[in-house]
């Protein structure tokens, strides 16, 4: 993550100078395909909702091979997990497995990436790719591959077609019995405002942020109103930079909490004091509105709770708790494929 001063400069530059779709100076949102129906920009009307604040004094985060029985036996009160053991439809968790977690007093959030498409998901067709790039059969909302995560692709999230696919995903996890969703890549507006993103267009940061705010609010409206689950939890991850664009406070009102990664440590490396101060200034707005802030830092090197590793984990957890947030010390490799239980510390 960039230092705060550079971060501020980039945001201002994006808002003032970047062109719209196709490089023609327009602020219109579309895509490279023009007449492709998947390029149609959403015009949905969204009802304002008020999020039920996420409750619980501890949380865990596991996306691969999560074992409902092990989670139920743990002391974690909030669980972020995938809807499926391996991300595929074939391995999705059953309603009875979710009921086991509820019986153990857990609040369970389903992970959902709404700013990037994942090629192994049920909604993705292999015909959309030619090697590692979108093919001529791909919907025009599909962008370039994420260089840091193989199989993940940027999406033009303002597309009605993409949003409908994500609302269908929300329907799926509601039917399974999840209490809410944990929305990843809500910071994708920063990618689309980057003039060096290699896409056919760039979107001014403010415009992209407002489109993402509307999308998150639409998910909340869909679940709570159309889905008849008024208490459905909506928790975006790494979305604190949307807050300056939440001019009427409706985004903060709609969410139930916020997840954050790499607040104090980027892996095993401490984050600068200026960056921490910048982010905490925004996160305190979330906490001040009565919403939980869930912080995941990848500070555990896997060597066991002793020596330098224990000191780092303890430092992370104590500082996060002192700030009024909830900590989860995850394994350094970022695989999120294990329930990281540290007896007497994080269990």
Task: Produce a short descriptive summary.
With 347 residues, the chain is α/β, with parallel strands linked by helices. It has nine helices and 15 strands.
What report would you give on this structure?
- With 347 residues, the chain is of the alpha/beta class.
- The protein has a single domain, classed as Aldolase class I (TIM Barrel).
- 31% of the residues lie in helices and 18% in strands.
- The protein contains 9 helices and 15 strands.
- A 5-stranded parallel beta sheet has the order 1-2-3-9-10, with helices on one face.
- Strand 2, helix 3 (95-103) and strand 3 (107-113) form a beta-alpha-beta unit.
- Helix 4 (160-176) packs parallel to helix 6.
- It is globular.
- Mean pLDDT is 91; it is low at 1-27.
């Amino acid at each position: 993550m960039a230092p705060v001063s550079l971060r501020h400069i980039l945001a201002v530059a994006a808002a003032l100078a970047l062109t719209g779709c196709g490089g023609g100076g327009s602020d219109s949102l579309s895509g490279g395909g023009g007449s492709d129906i998947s390029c149609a920009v959403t015009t949905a009307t969204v009802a304002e909702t008020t999020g039920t604040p996420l409750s619980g004094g501890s949380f865990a985060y596991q996306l691969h091979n999560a074992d409902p029985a092990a989670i139920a036996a743990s002391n974690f009160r909030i669980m972020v997990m995938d809807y499926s053991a391996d991300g595929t439809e074939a391995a999705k968790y059953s309603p009875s497995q979710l009921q086991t977690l509820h019986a153990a007093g857990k609040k369970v959030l389903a992970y959902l990436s709404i700013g990037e498409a994942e090629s192994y998901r049920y909604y993705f067709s292999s015909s959309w790719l030619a090697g590692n790039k979108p093919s001529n059969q791909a919907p025009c909302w599909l962008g370039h591959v994420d260089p840091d995560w193989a199989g993940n692709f940027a999406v033009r999230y303002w597309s009605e077609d993409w949003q409908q696919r994500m609302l269908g995903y929300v329907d799926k996890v509601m039917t399974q019995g999840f209490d809410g969703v944990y929305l990843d890549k809500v910071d994708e507006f920063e990618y689309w405002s980057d003039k060096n993103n290699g896409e056919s267009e760039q979107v001014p940061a403010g415009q992209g942020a407002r489109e993402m705010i509307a999308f998150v609010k639409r998910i909340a409206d869909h679940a709570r109103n159309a889905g008849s689950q008024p208490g459905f939890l909506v928790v975006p991850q790494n979305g604190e930079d949307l807050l300056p664009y939440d001019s009427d406070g409706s985004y903060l009102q709609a969410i139930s909490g916020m997840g954050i990664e790499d607040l104090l440590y980027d892996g095993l490396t401490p984050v600068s004091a200026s960056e921490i101060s910048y982010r905490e200034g925004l996160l305190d707005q979330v906490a001040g509105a009565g919403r939980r802030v869930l912080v995941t830092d990848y500070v555990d090197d896997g060597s066991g709770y002793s020596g330098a590793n224990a000191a780092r984990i303890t430092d992370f957890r104590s500082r996060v708790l002192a700030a009024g947030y909830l900590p989860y010390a995850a394994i350094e490799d970022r695989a999120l494929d294990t329930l990281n239980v540290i007896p007497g510390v994080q269990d």
